[in-house]
């Protein structure tokens, strides 16, 4: 092995390590805060973000903790974040009382992009 190829391999290895470290740092989402919030949704909560506003600068329009909540004026596509833990889920329901719910259950730690137009309530409960 010549000195030049050793230097080239060493430089390539160093560059790869730097890129891997840099990629790891860049891949970590700034949306996750040390307090457990996700895009402004507090830990142990479910949040809805305004229609067609994406993450709305990490300011959800609605924050729910547990129980059944009526949805008012939630038409069109929204982000819904379930930032709860311990197997808590949320269900989107067609009536206003958390009874006639969609068959899909949003597990803890997930984000949905969903049409809330036909939904009239959201139900949060342990699985």
Characterize the structure shown:
This protein has one helix at residues 3-27; strands at 46-48, 62-64, 67-70, 77-82, 88-93, 106-107, 110-115, 121-126. It is an alpha+beta fold and 127 residues long. The protein has a 4-stranded antiparallel β-sheet, with no helix packed on it. Strands 3-8-5-6 form a 4-stranded antiparallel β-sheet, with no helix packed on it. The radius of gyration is 22 Å and the shape is globular. Residues 1-30 have low confidence and may be disordered.
List keywords for this structure.
disordered N terminus, alpha+beta, single chain, globular, 20% helix, 8 strands, 4-stranded antiparallel β-sheet, 127 residues
Give the secondary structure arrangement, pairings included.
Blueprint: H1 3-27, E1 46-48, E2 62-64, E3 67-70, E4 77-82, E5 88-93, E6 106-107, E7 110-115, E8 121-126
Antiparallel strand pairs: 1-2, 1-4, 3-8, 4-7, 5-6, 5-8
β-strand percent reads 25-35%
The best one-word shape is: globular
The residue ranges in which pLDDT falls below 50 over 5 or more consecutive positions are: 1-30
- Radius of gyration equals 22 Å
Major sheet attributes: 4 strands, antiparallel
Averaged pLDDT: 81
Tally of separate helices:
1
Share of helical residues: 10-25%
Strand neighbour order, sheet with most strands: 2-1-4-7
CA-CA gap between termini: 62 Å
Gist?
With 127 residues, the protein is α+β, with helices and mostly antiparallel strands.
């Amino acid at each position: 092995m010549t000195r030049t190829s050793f230097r080239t391999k060493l430089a390539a290895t160093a560059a790869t390590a730097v890129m891997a470290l840099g990629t790891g740092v860049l891949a970590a989402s700034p949306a996750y805060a040390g307090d457990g919030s996700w895009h402004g949704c507090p830990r142990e909560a479910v949040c809805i973000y305004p229609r067609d506003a994406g993450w709305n600068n990490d300011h959800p329009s609605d924050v729910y903790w547990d129980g059944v909540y009526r949805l008012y004026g939630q038409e069109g596509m929204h982000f819904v974040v379930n930032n709860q833990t311990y197997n808590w889920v949320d269900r989107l329901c067609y009536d206003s009382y958390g009874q006639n719910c969609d068959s899909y259950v949003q597990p803890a730690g997930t984000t949905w992009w969903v049409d809330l137009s036909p939904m009239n309530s959201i139900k949060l409960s342990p699985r």
